[in-house]
């Protein structure tokens, strides 16, 4: 948009006066931020209205991305970027004598997700708007996001994340679009005048779902899409009916807090209520919107695509069936045809323990009509498939089985498309996790490799690098990130390589300043910044990284005078509050950090920093500063990974197993520009099939490994007698479920190679450049374009090659 500085300054001062009735000089950064957010929202309001109007006028097919999590990150800078007003606003703010960075930091970072899945949903929202696609988000407006993590005596402590305390500048509450979601009660069949039977639900517990909409601004293209998050409230006219305190609390609880676990199914009734709540409210509002422009529901699937982001929104399937049949008299077959043509499903994990299943009595009690529909889906599935495929495989894959509602199977059966998020992951879905369903519906399965929003992860997070890239290849890559490939022409340009070194140094300094001020630890910027940032989980193997730190520590202790390449090991990771083992790992890494960081023999050769409260905002600070990107999951376990892509585009070299999208990153950047190691997925499956992995044998055969692992139980690291033992036992007594010891030697070898290679600045920088140049293909713009073409069949405007 066009904006002059003088105009902005005038508007901003007026905004502050109107909102707070004080002079600018008397405002807090929070007030300055809120006023700026409101002003920008106002600047963009016409685009938002016009986008909706034009979708409606042109009867454009809409995509609705249903996700129980969205992790958008702070919106101020990305909205300014996408509107093209960054420079004007920054200048205006500076000339008013305000501190822009402080204003940026005053914005709460909405933690409405756990990790990769929620962040992916947010990247996709940004990309859909930016390529000009009619893509809407649908989720939950949690009053408390993911907990704030602090460390006390090295232990993780969780504090509530009251992110809405000062209001939310970007959202609009739309009370007039609210709808009722019904739980519990009874269903009975009422005879109609024509003799047919119609279900009636009574004695239900009704909850009002109120939408809060946030505009998702496209990049330089006047498009603004909508992210709709639902909040649970008492129904209207509630005062006419008595609600006990516990009924009120039950309603309040539905959207109170995000479940803080990203890898275990919760299995609790509140979680199921959350899932039905936003699925039902979302589908109701979609049907209502559709019917405001169409007379019949027959063409619904030509105008609406609903995407199921992992299994949490699977109940959109029976919910759409319910609305079509019970409210619009659609016969089953037509309703089923419309529903399956509308729905598509992405799986994000092969971990068995994350697959959602609900005990039938709980499900049936909470959602009696939905359960009837699932039963009928189940009955028809069995009737249609048993004659063709036999009873065994159909038993194993039916939506109902073992006394449970199996959400992933329901999602596959009720969708026309099922995708994994990286080629290896999709292959494993087909061969292993969903192999039976793949046999029955091979045509539904496809791969859509994840992507990231380059705008946030490069243009917002790494402004120095963005400027440098622009100075070399212009700005066209902002619209078509694959053009970053043009950078490879500068591989021999020493001046450019040196400029890249300077940019990295600047970013490392920014992080070092943060670490100094927040943690009181001094780190040197000429050290290797070796970064592992992701949820804490055994399969992601922070333990392997930890063993390497112990090894490096012992090595320096053994010969304190020997020359070493200095290193800073940087961790960011939250553990699910109930995940005991993950919390022990945090404690041990923190204790190790204390030992290492305060040992005079070590000095500044080796530092360990576990930065508390990792989230999107800290990611923006850490990622541009990284030299090494640790992507060290047990092969086959990480569906894709996305921090691997973010780190790559910021010039970090991957230290990676052949897992998830690491494989594709390595192929894109060239093997010689990354450090790969360890078992392959087929090695891991080989061990499973033969059942012959013995971690103890590896331990016995490697004296160096023994020394390192023994440090967990020798009191060398103070204060971890319980936690150290727990990890030690997991590796030896419980046979090392994630093959840490199997990969140890190869991992160490690559770490040693890294220490060598880092000394040759020019060669290192060339590798870093190769990563940046090849990273464009991992832009989410291309990912959503592929979803649009292959799955959703929706148009988009931007030409992407
Ligand atoms: O999804 C992650 C995978 O682990 C990553 O490999 C992948 O890159 C991303 C995006 O596709 N999965 C999750 O993040 N899963 C969850 O966050 C989650 C949340 C609630 C319940 C279960 C899983």
Protein described:
With 801 residues, this protein is of the alpha/beta class. The protein folds into three domains: 1-43 and 74-108, no CATH class; 44-73 and 109-448, Rossmann fold; 454-680 and 743-776, Rossmann fold. Strands 1, 2, 5, 6, 9, 10, 11, 12, 16 and 17 form a ten-stranded mixed beta sheet that branches. A six-stranded parallel beta sheet has the order 20-19-18-21-22-23, sandwiched between helices. Helix 4 packs across helix 19 (454-460), helix 11 packs across helix 14 (368-389) and helix 23 (580-597) crosses helix 30. It binds N-[(phenylcarbonyl)carbamoyl]-beta-D-glucopyranosylamine. N-[(phenylcarbonyl)carbamoyl]-beta-D-glucopyranosylamine binds at residues 114-117, 120, 262-263, 348-349, 354, 421, 450, 638-642, 660.
SSE order and pairing:
Blueprint: H1 5-20, H2 29-43, H3 45-57, E1 62-66, H4 76-83, H5 86-95, H6 100-106, H7 116-130, E2 135-140, E3 148-152, E4 155-159, E5 171-173, E6 179-183, E7 186-191, E8 197-202, E9 205-217, E10 224-233, H8 245-254, H9 269-291, H10 300-303, E11 304-309, H11 316-327, H12 332-342, E12 343-346, E13 357-359, H13 360-366, H14 368-389, H15 391-397, E14 400-401, E15 404-406, H16 407-413, E16 417-420, H17 423-433, H18 435-440, E17 445-447, H19 454-460, H20 463-473, H21 494-519, E18 528-533, H22 542-558, E19 567-572, H23 580-597, E20 606-610, H24 616-622, E21 628-631, H25 643-649, E22 653-656, H26 662-669, E23 675-676, H27 681-690, H28 695-701, H29 703-710, H30 721-731, H31 740-757, H32 761-774, H33 780-792
Parallel strand pairs: 1-2, 1-11, 2-10, 11-12, 12-16, 16-17, 18-19, 18-21, 19-20, 21-22, 22-23
Antiparallel strand pairs: 3-4, 5-9, 6-9, 7-8, 9-10, 13-15, 14-15
Helix pairs in contact: 1-2, 1-5, 2-6, 4-19, 7-33, 9-11, 11-12, 11-14, 13-14, 14-15, 21-32, 22-23, 22-29, 22-31, 23-30
This protein binds N-[(phenylcarbonyl)carbamoyl]-beta-D-glucopyranosylamine (BZD).
